[in-house]
């Protein structure tokens, strides 16, 4: 058999599940919202509305407010495409839902101002609509990330064009995050040294032209992802046309494109992507003021807890209570990052011995810069890391201006060569106690994925994005999903 024989590079005998039609996710979301809003309406009407009101006129007015508020929710959400795009990231879902709720407020604010006799009606309708947005948002996330993400039928099978580092990172991301709605089945790549090998646990089936020549191979997927556009240059259009799929996704870059505010424009037949480059000066001033206020309040509130943890650390193992480590602060600046000590005092010596004697641990550490089972951590330290309590002293770093509540990871100076050119972007803002990568996989992400997420955060930072990260952080802390 030749290298190009599809039977050599991929098992074509396994049964392939039929995917749910493209319209199904959006239809399920709409039906879910309808059911949730019906329950909300019944509950409000039972406890606050017509069943509780004895005056007929008041009951009729309440019914109008209830119907108006509930109907606005699916109507405005459909305007922002929340039902038609069933497979976008929950950050994008959050942004669109927030915009829909804001538009709803604006729509009801105008008649509230000019129609004095109907102000109570608009206040009630707006309150009900905002409640509906909040409840359906939670229901949407539960549906997408719970029910649908666990059903392989719903996920679109995709083949990834390019088995290089960027293609491997995309495959790992799609396998780790099923709610993205895509299931990678394999790679195609013109590099013949990769054929009949596996990347990210998936087979490299052969060259790109194999998709057009072998219907059996192409039939394994219904869409393609071009992982690295820079490799194809001016031939990208020709490549897309040769792929036997109706949908082709071209990845613009791992974190280096400001995607949150990107929009498409038709320049008289030429498709252009408009990327917003926003000056962060005003936003950074607001964020610094919030850092000072919030870190001061939190330090006062958690002071008794920190004192108790200090005593427990002292009793648990010999050594200092605090752990100080040099971290990079942009340019040539560094600062001492504070943590409660969670490791034995000879942790570095233990790490070197472990990496020298255990090749599996060495490979894991080189990839993730972390160890799943780390013998250097003390018994109390495991609890501190699981609950993220070891990071409480960093509130002092935030108050002193070394860090921010939210920002990129605080990298060690020795990691800068691996960060590469992205350091210029990441170093433009203060590192954060929490950030986008911490709430997007944390220890399950590779080092380069963390760098890409940090670049993405810096290029898209804003108050809404920060609020989203804070909410996700709170959920992760309550779940005990620490490092």
UniProtKB/TrEMBL annotation:
Transmembrane residue ranges: 26-45, 65-85, 97-115, 121-144, 292-313
Residues in Bacterial sugar transferase domain copies: 287-479
Alphabetized GO MF terms: phosphotransferase activity, for other substituted phosphate groups
One matching Pfam family: CoA_binding_3
Record keyword DNA-binding present: no
Compartmental location: Membrane
Alphabetic keyword roster: Exopolysaccharide synthesis, Membrane, Plasmid, Transferase, Transmembrane, Transmembrane helix
GO cellular component, as recorded: membrane
An individual GO BP term: polysaccharide biosynthetic process
Main location: membrane
Membrane topology: Multi-pass membrane protein
Family: Belongs to the bacterial sugar transferase family.
Xref: NCBIfam families: EPS_sugtrans (TIGR03025)
Record-given protein name: Exopolysaccharide biosynthesis polyprenyl glycosylphosphotransferase
Organism: Azospirillum oryzae
């Amino acid at each position: 058999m030749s290298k190009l024989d599809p039977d050599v590079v991929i098992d074509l005998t396994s049964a392939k599940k039929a995917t749910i039609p493209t319209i199904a996710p959006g239809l399920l979301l709409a039906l879910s919202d309808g059911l949730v809003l019906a329950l909300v309406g019944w509950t409000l009407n039972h406890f606050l509305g017509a069943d509780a009101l004895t005056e007929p006129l008041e009951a009729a007015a309440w019914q109008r407010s209830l119907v108006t508020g509930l109907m606005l929710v699916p109507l405005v959400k459909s305007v922002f495409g929340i039902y038609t795009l069933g497979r976008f990231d929950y950050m994008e879902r959050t942004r669109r839902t927030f915009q829909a709720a804001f538009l709803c407020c604006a729509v009801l604010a105008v008649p509230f101002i000019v129609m004095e006799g109907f102000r109570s009606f608009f206040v009630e309708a707006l309150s009900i609509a905002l409640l509906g947005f909040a409840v359906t948002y939670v229901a949407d996330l539960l549906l997408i990330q719970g029910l649908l993400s666990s059903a392989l039928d719903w996920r679109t099978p995709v083949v990834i064009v390019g088995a290089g580092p960027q293609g491997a990172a995309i495959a790992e991301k799609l396998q780790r995050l099923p709610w993205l709605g895509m299931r990678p089945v394999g790679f195609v790549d013109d590099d013949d040294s990769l054929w009949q090998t596996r990347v990210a646990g998936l087979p490299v089936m052969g060259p790109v032209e194999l998709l057009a020549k072998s219907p059996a191979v192409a039939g394994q997927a219904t869409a393609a992802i071009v992982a690295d556009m820079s490799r194809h240059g001016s031939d990208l259009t020709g490549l897309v046309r040769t792929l036997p799929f109706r949908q082709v996704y071209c990845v613009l870059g791992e974190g280096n494109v400001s995607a949150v505010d990107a929009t498409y424009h038709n320049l008289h037949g030429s498709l252009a992507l408009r990327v917003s480059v926003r000056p962060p000066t005003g936003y950074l001033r607001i964020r610094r003021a919030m850092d000072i206020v919030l870190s001061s309040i939190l330090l006062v509130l958690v002071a008794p807890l920190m004192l108790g943890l200090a005593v427990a650390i002292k009793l648990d193992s010999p050594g200092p209570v605090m752990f100080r480590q040099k971290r990079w602060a942009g340019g040539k600046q560094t600062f001492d990052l504070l943590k409660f000590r969670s490791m034995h005092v000879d942790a570095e010596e233990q790490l070197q011995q472990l990496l020298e004697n255990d090749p599996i641990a060495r490979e894991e550490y080189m990839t993730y810069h972390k160890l799943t089972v780390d013998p250097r951590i003390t018994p109390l330290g495991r609890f501190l890391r699981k609950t993220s309590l070891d990071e409480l002293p960093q509130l002092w770093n935030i108050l002193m201006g070394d860090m921010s509540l939210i920002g990129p990871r605080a990298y060690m100076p020795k990691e800068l060569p691996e960060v590469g050119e992205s350091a210029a972007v990441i170093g433009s803002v203060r590192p954060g106690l929490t950030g986008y990568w911490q709430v997007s996989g944390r220890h399950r992400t590779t080092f380069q994925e963390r760098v890409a997420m940090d670049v993405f955060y810096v290029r898209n930072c804003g108050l809404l994005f920060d609020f989203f990260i804070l909410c996700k952080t709170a959920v992760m802390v309550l779940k005990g999903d620490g490092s």
